[in-house]
Amino acid sequence: MTNQNQSRFWCTVCLVILGGYESLSLSTSKHRLRVSYSHTLQTSSRGPSHLYSSVYYEETTQEQVLKEPSPSFVDDTTSQAKASTLRDRTQPASLSLPVINYICTNQALLLMFASSAAIAVSFFSNNPFEISSLHWNGGQDFHSLFDWQPTLYRVMTGLFATIPIIAAGRVIETSDNRDASRVNFATTNMVISLFGRRKSEMEPTASESFQVMVLSALIAMSSGISEEIIFRGYIPTAILAMTNSLPSAVFGQAILFAAGHFSKDAEPGENMLNWSLQLLNGLWYAAVYQMTGGDILPCIIAHVLCDMHILCQTWTEVNNQIDYTQKLSMNHLCEDQKTAVERLQRGTGITLNSETVDFARHFFYAFDNDHAGSLSLSDCQRAVSYAFLNDSIAPDANVVRDLFEQAKEQRYAQGNSVVSSDRVDFSEFLHLLVALRSNSRQYSRC
Fold first, then answer.
1. Cα separation values, 78 from 45, 48, 73, 286, 363, Å
2. Cα–Cα distance between 352 and 74 in angstroms, integer?
3. Most CB atoms closer than 10 Å: which of 252, 354, 370, 421?
4. Alpha carbons 384 and 398: distance in angstroms, whole number
5. Angle at 285 between CA 283 and CA 288, to 5 degrees
């Protein structure tokens, strides 16, 4: 086959594969587990056992409480909250097997379509080839795309290849950046929607940890195998044949891999952050493939382990946080806290009925990552980032820090040393949110 014919041939292969991938991706996007983000401290009568549906996923009621109430505000929100609670009690707290099955099936179909396209084009070409012999590394020694015989070296390479990817993901998880918060909550919403709550005395019909581990492995294997063969096998091979440029193959497959993770429902900043993260992942997987002399198995192992880590870790952490929030939310406010809330109402003129205060407490404990009964500055930054996700402008981190310090100074002025010096309690956090909401434009940045 001449170089010109070879380029045309691989161009056809690449276009067919990408066309099929786009079609299946569009089909999948209709079923993506995304939700609308709630406004600051919305009213709800959800009990502690339904915290996850109001803070982590599913719909929330539409009224905001941190604004001047209308005369019928209390009655309207009470009736709406009751209806919302009824809906919550009918929502399953266990596995969403149809959606899990859909994800795995879609990945299998995607791989079959891409492989069939390559085989079909090869069959009608002047120079048929074995699909398993495709490779895009510089040397002649390479592993077949379907050579998955495990050896200690290949497995260990895959294990070590997971470390940079997990480390990069951890940076996003611990960030209080607004777009990072959107990415984190989208992941949390997806995971808790797939696997539900963890089985306990309060949730006897919920999911077992072993079930979640097995299903996470199935999802991770389906996506890891499919995406690695396509994006680290077929597509870079096609790009290299068309351009005769290894850098083009490396960056081309990474760009297309990142583009496949765009969501039409996400905010531009969230999409850009997720795209950047997946671009780095695609470049790293390509580097692993090249460093191992054209071996796809370490890439598959790393991809599978990273996906499984995200699913299992997120499910475990969110359930731990829900359990903690349930326990703390059952306790009554102490007298000092009640007095502080009443003083806040008198000073601002807002209405904080019992339902609103209960929801605010759920919100507060949901961000107490250290389970200390109070929030650190980083906890506050993440909570504020989530609370203002629907706003066109977000509170500046420096302003949040200043309000945080002011809360501590006010506490010392009143002689209250119950809370740790570097944390704020519930009433102080509530006051901080009210100050931000009341002066949102003054305290915000675009």
1. 8, 17, 8, 55, 19
2. 10
3. 252
4. 12
5. 110
3-state secondary structure of 143: coil
Give dist(CA 235, CA 14) in Å, integer.
Answer: 6
Q: Compute CA distances 441 → 105, 186, 324, 390, whole Å.
A: 47, 26, 34, 14
* CATH tag, 331-445: 1.10.238.10
Residue 46 backbone phi and psi in degrees, to 5: -60, 135
Token duo for residue 266? 């996400």
**Which residues on neighbouring strands pair with residue 445, listed in sequence order?**
394
Convert the pLDDT of each residue in 398-436 to its tens digit: 888 998 888 888 776 665 555 557 888 888 888 888 888
Domains of the chain, by residue range, sit at 3-30+93-322, 331-445
| Residues in Cβ contact with 71 at an 8 Å cutoff, skipping those fewer than 6 apart | none
Q: How far is residue 252 from each of residues 71, 238, 245, 246, 257, measured CA to CA in Å? A: 59, 10, 10, 10, 9
Tell me the whole-structure pTM to 2 decimals: 0.78
Alpha carbons 433 and 427: distance in angstroms, whole number:
10
User: Who has greater pLDDT, 86 or 126?
Assistant: 126
Are 65 and 351 in contact, with CB atoms under 8 Å apart? yes
Sequence-ordered alpha helix ranges (H) in 150-205: 152-173, 178-195
Please write down the long-range contacts of 435-441, taking CB distance under 8 Å and 24 or more positions apart: 435/403, 436/384, 436/388, 436/395, 436/399, 436/400, 436/403, 437/40, 437/66, 437/67, 438/66, 438/348, 440/388, 440/391, 440/393, 440/395, 441/393
Range ranked top by mean pLDDT from 35-44, 236-245, 352-361: 236-245
* Identity of residue 275: W
The CA distance from 116 to 128, in Å, is 14
Identify the three-state secondary structure at position 106: helix
**Which parts of 293-438 are beta strand (E)?**
394-395
Kind and range of the H or E run holding 393: none
Smallest CA-to-CA distance from 432 within 389, 391, 366, 377 is with 377
pLDDT digits (tens, 9 = 90+) for 125-143: 666 667 778 888 876 678 8
* Residue 79 parent element (H or E): helix 73-90
- Phi first, then psi, for residue 36 (nearest 5°) are -80, 140
Residue 322 CA to residue 192 CA, distance in Å, equals: 11
